[in-house]
Write a structure and sequence with these properties.
4-stranded antiparallel beta sheet
């Protein structure tokens, strides 16, 4: 079941088309990657979901019905441009923002205690936001985003300003919340994080959706029959015999075993490649290279250009 979906959403600002008939479906209990180059239209779609602006046409659905105004209380949004009040105290501000999202003071205090202890930041309660580093401010805003346990969470570049330890902490929290039933829209340019976290993705470029689907299926779709082979034997035999059926992309004989990156051409299969290899060398390992999301992103955007 989809928790959220957008159907043929379009939005223009003056003569600029920000979104052109974009449709996405976000399965309940998943992490959904909303991807695209700068200026593609991602932020406009996120603002529409958060009811900051309205689409010119198209429909927004939430839990199987058209989204209503008060659904905003069931959404948590961490924007790329952070918005904490610099001169307010951390605890006072987090409490205020939790109550704005519909929590009672008692409920907000209970949830804040859990999160502040988890992140080991109880000592920050009476500090002003301006006294904190960028990464510390980011932690506080993350807490404020998830404090009311929203049904849908939207994270726009959530790891900006974090060191690797805190990035890992945030990733584990995102995966934990997903396991507990939260649905997450995750917008980032870090494709490594997309591979780690996202079950599904949609790629927007020049206001249009140009790719979507389960992350693993997309990577499989764009594989190019390239294999990484570790072997023992005489490379000259391989090089001489394989010229017509295979393309040798890289070769290295400096390690304990030799390595080869090889691509089979039309009419060949992985089975025939293994068969041909074992006639000449001893195979130590044989792995198909699946393209990374970064490689897929670059390829699809370049094709769209």
């Amino acid at each position: 079941m989809d928790l959220f979906s957008a159907q043929e959403v379009s939005k223009s600002f003056s003569n600029f088309k920000a979104l052109s008939e974009v449709s996405i479906s976000v399965p309940e209990g998943s992490v959904f990657g909303l991807l695209g180059p700068n200026g593609a239209g991602k932020t406009t779609l996120i603002r529409i979901i958060n009811q900051i602006t309205a689409p010119d046409s198209g429909t927004i659905w939430f839990e199987g019905r058209k989204m209503k105004a008060d659904d905003i209380y069931r959404i948590g949004y961490l924007p790329e441009e952070r918005g904490l009040y610099k001169k307010m105290k951390v605890g006072e501000q987090a409490l205020y923002l939790g109550m704005l999202k519909g929590l009672s003071r008692k409920e907000a205090m209970r949830e804040l205690k859990i999160w502040f202890e988890k992140f080991e930041i109880i000592s920050w309660w009476d500090k002003k936001v301006m006294e904190l580093s960028k990464g510390m401010q980011q932690k506080v805003q993350f807490i404020c985003t998830v404090l009311h346990r929203p049904k849908l969470m939207i994270f726009d570049e959530p790891f900006t300003g974090f060191d690797p330890i805190n990035v890992e902490l945030m990733k584990q929290e995102i995966l934990r919340m997903k396991k507990e039933g939260a649905t997450i829209i995750f917008s980032t340019h870090n494709m490594e994080s997309v591979e780690e976290l996202c079950d599904h993705i949609a790629l927007i470029d020049k206001s249009k959706k140009i790719l979507d689907g389960p992350t693993l299926n997309i990577r499989e779709k764009y594989k190019s029959n390239v294999f990484d082979v570790s072997y023992k034997g005489d490379f000259a035999k391989i090089e001489h015999e394989f010229g017509q059926k295979y393309s040798i992309l890289a070769h290295d004989e400096t390690g304990r075993t030799n390595s080869l990156k090889i691509q089979f051409l039309n009419g060949s299969t992985s089975g025939s490649l293994i068969k041909d290899l074992v006639e000449h060398v001893e195979i130590v390992s044989f792995n198909e290279l699946i393209p990374s999301m970064n490689e897929v992103f670059i390829k699809v955007v370049k094709q769209n250009a």
